[in-house]
Amino acid sequence: MLLTITTTHNPATDLGYLLHKNPSRLQTFEQTFGSAHVFYPAVSAEKCTAALLLEVDPIGLVRGKREQRTLEQYVNDRPFVASSFLSVAIGQIFRSAMSGKSESHHELAETEIPLEAKISVLHCRGGEDFLRQLFEPLGYEIEAQNYQLDEQFPEWGASNYFTVTLTATKKLRDLLTHLYVLIPVLDNEKHYFVGDEEVEKLLRRGEGWLAAHPMREIIARRYLKNRHSLAREALSRLMQEEITELADLKSESLEEVLEKTISLNEQRYQAVMTALKSVDAKRIVDVGCGEGKLLRHLLAEKSFTEIVGLDVSHRALEIAAEKLRLERLPDFQRERIKLLHGSLTYRDARLAGYDAACAVEVIEHLDAARLSAFERVLFEFARPKTVVVTTPNSEYNAKFENLPAGKFRHADHRFEWTRIEFQNWANKVSEKFAYSVNFESVGEVDEHLGSPTQMAVFQDKI
Q: Strand pairing of 283-287 and 435-442?
């Protein structure tokens, strides 16, 4: 099995410093299951590729075992597919890189750089859809080449084996960590005993991304070899982390404090409501609904017959249900609304066919790689007739006296766009996905700085 990691960061040869492996020589590491080799098939300032090649000895794996041996122990796919063997090798050979340590290139280790990981061959129990559900929410672009069970007998159909290429701009340690956790999840098998230590390992390696992943339950279960008691423990601890994070967010954010004096939140929701009613929308989905502030306004409008709130956080949806008092609503009202758990950055068939979708103060929370995935999910796959998007106008920040220069309105914002930047993005999206777009100002308009919130209303042209 072969894993290659390529970067075009200049100078690309710095990859050797990040991996702590010299590009000029072959290195071999003995493993309990065989041998692992690290070498660099391409080395230049423009492009550098590191390769990790595993040679698994199937006979050595069963040598010395007392249980009755079967032919399957000697003849299987383990020497040829990425599995927990590769995961273990990554953890041992690239341990320092996974920890983000680099004495000579510490700043680079903390920098997101263009990376491409290619795995030959990956066993995906669940097929390409499952593969995408695991990696797309993390911001990866995926190319998957599927193999037939037997090329001489095409009627046998496709296998679950793929050559997979993952592309993203990330910290190297994040890429290695995602591969370390998710490769055995895709394979749905581990070659070693799974106990309490694996729970700690999963929580440690999943820090910062697993709690918010829409497939976290399946990831935990498969990573822990379908031992339900261990999976429940891991999930309960992940949930506790999420509750703690959301408890911090529930206190008034700087953004809410800044905007309260100009009643911007209410003006924003009213602008969205006006846009929805102007196109006679009946069935509406609020993506990134959070605690349900927009949903409350939608529910109060009788002309909206079906309302859906989607969010990646279970806890946020629970809070939304409490604030909307869903359990106390009359049946005819309760049937109008439903809350869905899901990510904004991977395809979800449940979102298709709606009259309108709203993304209110959502896009600025997405990094660049996830923003492109969000665009496809919403405008290509879900494809509502109308899409309403709002986001802060960074130019207006100059009017907020309590906001330090150069700072965003919210700590979780990945960016805040000027009016030109937002219009350039919206025009590019509308052209790419065959929508028209109109722009509106939300809040008091300053002659030089514009309005505090900017809004785009997209209309499907097809």
A: unpaired
Indicate the SS3 state at residue 436. strand
Cβ neighbors of 369 (< 8 A, separation 6 or more) are 139, 140, 141, 168, 169, 170
Residue 103: pLDDT over 90: no
3-state secondary structure of 403: coil
pLDDT tens per residue across span 345-384? 888 889 999 999 999 999 998 887 789 889 999 999 999 9
Q: What is the mean pLDDT of residues 133-147?
A: 91
Crossing angle for the helix pair 264-278 and 293-300, nearest 10 degrees?
50
Higher pLDDT, 330 or 240: 330
**Residue 241 C-alpha from the chain's centroid:** 18
Angstrom CA distances, 10 to 15, 49, 166, stand at 10, 13, 20
Q: How far is CA 45 from CA 50, 52, 259, 383, in A?
A: 14, 20, 48, 42
Return the half-sphere exposure (C-beta side, CA atoms, 13 A cut-off) of residue 190: 19
Cite the DSSP H helix spans in 116-162.
Answer: 127-135
H helices within 289-389, ranges in order? 293-300, 314-324, 331-334, 368-375
Q: What is the pLDDT of residue 344?
A: 84
- pLDDT recorded at residue 243: 45
Rounded Cα distance between 24 and 101, Å, is: 21
DSSP assignment letter at 198: H
Residue type, 386: T
Q: Can you name the residues that pair with 456 across neighbouring β-strands?
A: 389, 439
> pLDDT tens-digit profile of 41-57?
999 999 999 999 988 87
Q: Residue 348: its pLDDT value, please?
A: 87
Query: Which residue from 173, 172, 198 is spatially nearest to 185, judged by alpha carbons?
Result: 198
Phi, psi of 347 (to 5 degrees): -60, 135
Question: Which strands sit side by side in the sheet containing 48-56, from one edge to the other?
Answer: 27-31, 34-43, 48-56, 2-7, 113-123, 158-170, 141-148
Distance separating alpha carbons of residues 339 and 284, to the nearest angstrom: 12
Q: Is 135 helix (H, G, I), strand (E, B) or coil?
A: helix
Q: Which residues pair with 339 in a beta bridge?
A: 309
Strand order in the sheet with 337-341: 337-341, 306-311, 283-287, 356-360, 386-392, 453-460, 435-442
Assigned token pair, 375:
């665009």
